[in-house]
């Protein structure tokens, strides 16, 4: 029988098919593969048969029931938003944090609290480091580092490579903020834990971001470079429909780029991705359409519930109800993404 | 100290075949010797260079074989004796000049020693250069022993002077590189003074006049060779089997006849003058032959020519069965061996092969297994080529357009093996990588999307790649030429080349620098250190994003040259606490992929380990370990 190396399988099923979501799970600590200007690159052929790259990749086989059993202790909930405890709206109570945040700064506030309370000892976040052009994963262990990572970078950033960095550094309770694809990968890591690294415990908190698509970071950088100085960009905003634009904030003010111009830069993988809300996270956070400065917050696990309760109790987070009409709209959007994926 | 200049006629000394050839040239009174190094011929000019001063010779490592022959021809048209040595591929390079020089002839003596490499032990091909003799209407001799090699070279000069044309001597690896006893002859006491007689002209034009002259000279050579003592017959008057052999075939056949006790049944016709054939002698033997076996290496040259001779004379000859390469009795490629000849001759004569003494067989097998460790064909520890190919591999992977690396001739020719990460995709002749890259770089106009690159050694660059680079530049071809500058002709034994500050005789020489040449052509030229892997890789990456013809010089001394001059750069060791061995999940990346012989996998410890005895201390592997477990400390 032909023996297939994991890397060959990954290459065939994902990379060569253009389906890589640039999550970064396969490249962390691997000398055979690397990331280069936003792409996952195979440098050398690896012959390991049961390797982590293929197993942890979110774009290879995913068993929602097994993951649900692990995370929620129940079979997979096929409802539009996945298994959940409740959906609310929220914002960081600290105005400084709220101002840093993409929406209401909920994610940043939660990570700060988790670190402070010892729920996590480190956070894997996504940042564009000073002087760099590409977003990447970082291991944050201080308030300043967590705050510096606030704000959405609308690209696949390989940030899960930093999970390996955090593990190698000996961190025992790692919190990760990730896109839905990355959440899936993180749960696969815990489920298969191929090197028995106790990943179920060590990946201690998973915060998912809502996501409809992400740009290829190489294509996006190439698009931005001639239009904006490479390091002058401060932040991106996608105002709610029907605006259909990407707002690029620079030192000289905001520029609006029509989304239609940017669609060709979307990662191929995103067209096959069925998950809009990070269905397997502890909590998932998205924008609150029509409520600037607020987030939509889905609480899914008991850990998530505890974290939110603590956040409210300690005055970190302000929460409110999430109206039914908005919930219906959110579900519709999530189902639309699933449909898109099933037709891809 | 070279023994080849020993002035002791009659003394028997041990010489390497190539030294014996050089000694023969000294005894013939040569004044000039030139060559481009190429195994198995390199020691001929190498040993002459050592005694050049003492013997009053001019010896040079020429830029290529054609120029070497031209340099020698200048001496030979000026009345001197000159020797040129080359490997079989070299004769191809020199052949353009040779096939015109043969038409004009010379005025002194000019001998080309071409060392063939049956089985391609150190070559990309195993071409049989004997066919050139016929093509060029020039005489060719084939020695079968070391002593004969010396004598034949001396005789070749006699022939050359007599016919006023070139004479070729064909050696092979097993003669050139083995050692044997040679009886020294006298060295000449007088020196010829070069003088180009301007009342004579040496113009190949018009062939209608020069070609008949060449034929006449060959005929004159045939008469000399026919009487030569290098041909001879031993055996019964009417043998059951007549073996016609040349070169190593003579030795092996004679040995087999002897060990099988077939002296009364099998005859051996030794041919030392392969072209033109000693026809009278051969016809004499064919008259009493029934079955003829040819024993020669690589192509059926003797075989074809003897059969043609038979056809011309068939009315006066018996029916003969010819056996050789054509009949499949002898393989039509590779080397002959005593074992092969034993099987063939035993089979043809119905003789039993005597058993090898069991004890001897076992001790031989033991010796082979215990004293010759298995080694794969690989770059030396600390070889800069390994680092260069690593950087190229990385740059091509990052680029992702499936770039094509055209290979070339030199140590780095091994790059197509795992030791060079299988990066070069072609390997042909000196300078051909550049020519092919120049061609591929034009295919972008026709829709090709893959970047074109070529690697070329410093010596190869001077030899044959410069015209290709100029071609690419002039035609605005898109390719990157990577010059692997290890400052030596490493593959053949560190001979100096035009970039070196000394010449073959050890005199200071103005180096012609790669970067100066490229700059003079107006080519964008960068210089990097291949040991700085990431820098080298990123430079290659950036260069292949640009259009046009570009040169990158990856400069780092050959590990063997460096080891002779300077202590190790780094002391390297593996920190066993950091090396996570099998747990790494990296599948022993360092030893499996990088494969430096200095870095091994310790099976019992399940970790990698530096072999301090052979680690060259380049420190490159320390930059590769994902765990930082390989530690380099400045030595
Ligand atoms: C590619 C992408 C697409 C998105 N699409 C939608 C959408 O369609 N609908 C919607 O409601 N919301 C979407 N979001 C989420 C939204 O932009 C906010 O991130 C989310 O509402 C949280 O807001 P916040 O104020 O709490 O975030 P903040 O407090 O600013 O925290 C943001 C966190 O996100 C992390 N992060 C930033 N960029 C990335 C990245 N590229 N990959 C992984 N992590 C990252 C940072 O590390 C930071 O911790 C998207 C986000 C991204 C990155
Ligand atoms: S999706 Fe993630 S794990 Fe899969 S190939 Fe891409 S970077 Fe690697
Ligand atoms: S759409 Fe899916 S695959 Fe694409 S970035 Fe978002 S979560 Fe990842």
Give the % helix of chain B: 25-40%
Quickly count the helices of chain A. 13
Q: What spatial order of strands do you see in the largest sheet of chain A?
A: 5-4-6-7-11-12-3-13
Order of helices and strands of chain A: HEEHHEHHEEHHEHHEHEEEHEEHEH
Q: How would you classify the quaternary structure?
A: heterodimer
CATH class identity of one domain in chain A: Alpha Beta
Instruction: Give the low-pLDDT segments of chain A.
Output: none
CATH uppermost class of the largest domain in chain B: Alpha Beta
Could you say which overall geometry of chain A the principal axes of the C-alpha atoms support?
A: globular
Overall pLDDT score of chain A? 95
**What small molecules accompany the polymer chains?**
flavin-adenine dinucleotide, iron/sulfur cluster
Tell me roughly what share of residues is in helical segments of chain A: 25-40%
- How many strands in all of chain B? 24
Which fold name corresponds to the CATH topology of one domain in chain A? Aspartate Aminotransferase, domain 2
Strand content of chain A: 15-25%
Strand content of chain B: 15-25%
Rounded to the nearest angstrom, the radius of gyration of chain B is: 27 Å
The chain pair forming the largest interface, with residue counts per chain, is: A-B, 19 and 16 residues
Gap from first CA to last CA of chain A: 32 Å
* Biggest sheet features of chain B: 7 strands, mixed
Question: How are the SSEs ordered, and which strands pair?
Answer:
The complex is a heterodimer of chains A (344) and B (635).
Chain A (H helix, E strand, L loop, with lengths): L5 H10 L17 E4 L2 E4 L9 H5 L7 H9 L13 E7 L2 H6 L5 H12 L4 E6 L8 E5 L2 H6 L12 H8 L5 E5 L1 H13 L6 H4 E7 L7 H8 L8 E5 L7 E6 L2 E6 H4 L20 E5 L7 E5 L2 H12 L3 E5 L2 H20 L1
Parallel strand pairs in A: 4-6, 6-7, 7-11
Antiparallel strand pairs in A: 1-2, 3-12, 3-13, 4-5, 8-9, 9-10, 11-12
Chain B lengths: L11 E5 H11 L4 E4 L6 H14 L2 E4 L3 H12 L4 E7 H17 L4 E8 L13 H6 L4 E2 L4 H18 L3 E6 H4 L2 E5 L23 H20 L5 E3 L6 E5 L2 H12 L6 E5 L2 E3 L3 H8 L4 E5 L5 H12 L8 E3 L14 H12 L8 H14 L12 H16 L4 E3 L17 E3 L5 H9 L11 E6 H17 L4 E7 L28 H8 L2 E5 L4 H13 L3 E7 L3 H7 L4 E5 L14 H6 L4 E4 L4 E4 L19 E5 L1
Parallel strand pairs in B: 2-3, 2-4, 4-5, 5-7, 6-7, 10-11, 10-13, 13-14, 15-16, 15-17, 17-18, 18-20, 19-20
Antiparallel strand pairs in B: 1-8, 6-12, 9-11, 21-24, 22-23
Helix pairs in contact in B: 1-2, 1-6, 3-4, 6-8, 9-12, 14-18, 15-16
